[in-house]
């Protein structure tokens, strides 16, 4: 018998910025389970953003994420046996 599907785990906010979005970015940056290395790289990048722009790096990151997110969804339509 199979045990079933593993429960979906919620992403915990990161300790420095208390943001789930930052934690998700760290998880995407991470190679071979090296979370400390990935978080060091990200926090250094945030320090560079703060030095160059003078703005809060979390605000810059959230604004950048909003700029790249899609505004609307394009749905496929089936017309005459073909998908468009």
How does the SSE layout of this entry go?
Blueprint (H helix, E strand, L loop, with lengths): L19 H10 L5 H19 L3 H12 L9 E2 L2 E2 L1
Antiparallel strand pairs: 1-2
Helix pairs in contact: 1-2
CATH class: Mainly Alpha
Assembly of the depicted chains: single chain
Number of domains: 1
Radius of gyration: 19 Å
Q: Indicate the overall shape.
A: flat
Mean pLDDT: 93
How many helices? The count is: 3
Could you name the CATH homologous superfamily? Ribosomal protein S7/S5
Low-confidence segments, ≥5 residues, pLDDT <50? none
The CATH topology assignment is: Ribosomal Protein S7
Spatially, the strands of the biggest sheet line up as: 1-2
Question: What order do the helices and strands follow?
Answer: HHHEE
Instruction: Bin the strand percentage.
Output: under 5%
Amount of helix: 40-55%
What is the CATH-assigned architecture?
Orthogonal Bundle
Keywords: Ribonucleoprotein, Ribosomal protein
GO cellular component, one term: ribosome
Protein name: 30S ribosomal protein S7
Pfam family, one: Ribosomal_S7
